[in-house]
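quick one: flavin-adenine dinucleotide bound model?
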Amino acid sequence: MIDFNFEKNCYGCRNCENICPTKAIRIEENKEGFLMPVIDEEKCIKCGMCNKKCPFLNLEVNKEKIRLNKWYSCYMKDEEKRKESSSGGIFPILAECIIEKGGHVCGCVWNDKLEAVHVVTNKPEEVNKMKGSKYVQSDLNETVVKIKSILNEGKIVLFTGTPCQVAAVKSYLVEEQNLYTMAVICEGVASPKVWRKYKGYIEEKNHSKLKDVKFRSKDIGWEPPVMKQIFKNGKIKSQLTYSTNIYGKGYLQGLYYRKSCNNCQYKYDNYNADIIVGDFWGADKELLKETNNNGISAILINTLKGEKIFNEINNKVTKKLIDIESVVKNNKMVIKSNKKHKNRDNFFRNIDDLNIEVNINKNINMSKQKQLKNAIKEIAYKTKTYDLIKNIIK
Ligand SMILES: Cc1cc2nc3c(=O)[nH]c(=O)nc-3n(C[C@H](O)[C@H](O)[C@H](O)COP(=O)(O)OP(=O)(O)OC[C@H]3O[C@@H](n4cnc5c(N)ncnc54)[C@H](O)[C@@H]3O)c2cc1C
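yep, here:
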């Protein structure tokens, strides 16, 4: 029977629930809003399958034997399509390549309640919904079981998600030649409960349900990211994702990450996806100019399988070999987990009692100087003068 400190280390992938032959494990949301296993000891037959499939317990099994360690700066040549993605638009090209081969793609979409969930599909219009980073933990539900049955039909599958989710899928499926994996560089995943509360709060404030949310709208380009909220009553609200939107600010500081994110095993040394994609925040001015500030990714080609598929999309991307230092310089979460936020416990203690905006505001760390800078940035964004101030106010 699976047994470790779930609250601290469980990734919430549901592998134990999905594999259990007697349905002795169910998954429930804890007080913080994260999925955790609950075990019915009477139903457990001690077969040990849950231990075998758990990504937390199988780090060694999950390690890639041959790693290529080739980093590239990379972006999709089609500029209009690239604008629909969070960074360089690598995901949709990989997905298209897999679908053209008769395969399926698994990734994260907003469902009709705007909850982040993983789905498996071979329909391009569904794959379109996977574009864009959703800064909340996605529920893998039973996708791993569906992937297994598609692989059993001899078809190929591309799984995309956070590094721990890739580890979960690889723990469950083991040595699958037809499985391709792409992980995003990940700083941490936010609590679905916090997202629900924030969503409810802005819906009330705007007298309308939300229709869509983009955390990384490229309204004024890739940098700075803009969070766009589209309401059913036609209202559209846009704010700078990390400097002025309250949910984005709390997320960036790690105020409501899952606890396992503060202790993530699946950082650089243990990356095991075929391809890892993130934002190339360290790109120099010339490269940024070349991309028209419409997005650029840093890509790690990690395995031979990753290299094979990356070579197949060659004519659709512009790429250049780079060194890891240029990526890590502005993206420390490639190599290490963020430290636990000092006010995390306080924030979650009040999660059910305080208004979400008040609770986030009370607990984020922000100097007066930083607040002032953020206010100036927001005014500049609203008055379309951001380009003029961006190099003065960092
Ligand atoms: C929670 C999260 C944290 C991130 N943190 C960083 C970071 O610290 N530094 C950095 O450089 N990059 C980070 N990224 C990655 C970055 O934002 C882009 O997702 C990545 O560069 C891929 O860009 P793209 O243009 O190729 O993909 P897009 O075309 O935008 O496609 C988005 C891809 O992300 C997947 N995805 C979206 N939301 C989720 C989710 N909630 N859970 C799992 N998978 C999801 C989709 O399945 C799809 O494959 C993060 C992404 C997420 C989802």
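The longest strand covers residues 210-217.
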